[in-house]
Amino acid sequence: MVKISVLQHAPSVHLPARPGDPTPTTRNLDPLMHPFARARERNRALNAAKMDRLFAKPFVGALEGHIDAVEVLCKKPGSLSAIASGSWDGGVILHNVSERKHIRRIQGAHKGKVSGLCFAQDDRLLSCGVDSNIKLWDASPQDDITEQRPLNVYPGKSPFNSIDHHRSDPLFATASNIVQIWDETKSAAISNLTFPTSTETITSVRFNLSETSVLGSIGSDRTFTLYDIRTGKAERRVVMQMSSNALAWSPTFPTNVLLASEDHNLYTFDVRQLKTPTHIYKGHVAAVMSCDWSPTGLEFVSGGWDRTVRIWKEGQGMGPEVYHTKRMQRVSSSIFTADARFVLTGSDDGNVRIWKAKASEKLGIITARERAAIEYRDTLKDRWKHDNEVGRIQRNRHLPKPVYQAAKLKRTMLDTRAVKEERRRKHTRAGESKPNAERKKVVIAEQT
């Protein structure tokens, strides 16, 4: 009798496990059997990078209502959709971002520019202006959105430039010619914080998000100062090469602070070591007017006098995402939304614009299959980012002609300065002139 060997395969291995599932396939993973696998993967990465740029449409919409330049924006803690905007026309508007409509509209909240906004506890809003008044408003949704009577008014002695509320206590800080601490239940400031021998005008003040008794301020005399409200005095101060226009504390690293500077750069400092910045972010071609961290602490947004909005990855000082429109003028305020998916900017043309934080992100419902494809393409782009062609497509950003020409001129000037310093060093006696690191040129002096 002849024995016949028959290959037997279990049918369940070759059939879908459930109705509707794809038919399972078996693959030989031996690399020798797939000589073109790497070339195929590179081609997919190239297509993924091209698709990313093809679908990059970051502008979502605009929130209208102001008749003059939007000076300040703030988001409501614990809310994904509520934001407030203040304008040069003295008006304050509370927006619902998701529905793109007004919650409250306060015309003539201040005489002149609204210079600072922040949310207090229990659906209330604090605003300050150049009319030397601080006003407390009810920010809860109501039928009559034009109700204009403040809950309280705190008179000051000089115009205010900024305001920020304590995270848990009924306290808030204001910036004018000095930093003042106010109690919501008292009509006058309970504490004045100033650095000895300081005659500066404070342009912005912010409480630390973790160590809530610590606050930082920037001034017109190029200084960044740290205060402690428990001791009631300034602790440390650094004098920089040029003045800063905005500051923001990192939400995930309590010791990190971000400064938007007049010299077109942004700087991150560790407050434990203020002699040198931890990173320098270069890209703007005019003064940087605003900055704000993403709630994840992994990226931040900046808006500048060059009419562009840039989104930076923390630790990467070059190559940010650049947003611009034909009608957008100088950007004076920019914030991230609480879910880190959108960016809001206020500019001189009176509009509050909504942008996607990731320019090519699809809005709406994403199926599991789409999500898997998106994650696969992201992995490919990250794996092949050092390839010349893939990297060039990922880095390339179209800029308006004036911004491009200004960047080109700035690059030429910086290169010329570097050549001049190198020639000067070459013709100086050996050891007399040593090159300085770029980070060490930022801070002139540290004072305690």
Structural commentary:
The chain is of the alpha+beta class. Helix content is 15%, strand content 36%. It has a five-stranded antiparallel beta sheet, with no helix packed on it. Helix 1 packs across helix 2 (368-383) and helix 1 runs parallel beside helix 3 (388-395). The chain is globular, with a radius of gyration of 27 Å. The model has no long low-confidence stretch (mean pLDDT 90).
Highlighted features:
single chain; 448 residues; alpha+beta; five-stranded antiparallel sheet; four-stranded antiparallel sheet; 29 strands; globular
Shape: globular
Rounded to the nearest angstrom, the distance between the terminal CA atoms is: 101 Å
Q: What structural category characterises the helix and strand content?
A: alpha+beta
Residue share in β-strands: 35-45%
Mean of residue pLDDT values? 90
Major sheet description: 5 strands, antiparallel
Gyration radius from CA atoms, angstroms: 27 Å
Q: So how many helices?
A: 4
What is the helix content? Answer: 10-25%
Q: pLDDT below 50 for ≥5 consecutive residues: which ranges?
A: none
* Strand line-up across the major sheet: 14-15-16-17-29
Count the strands? 29
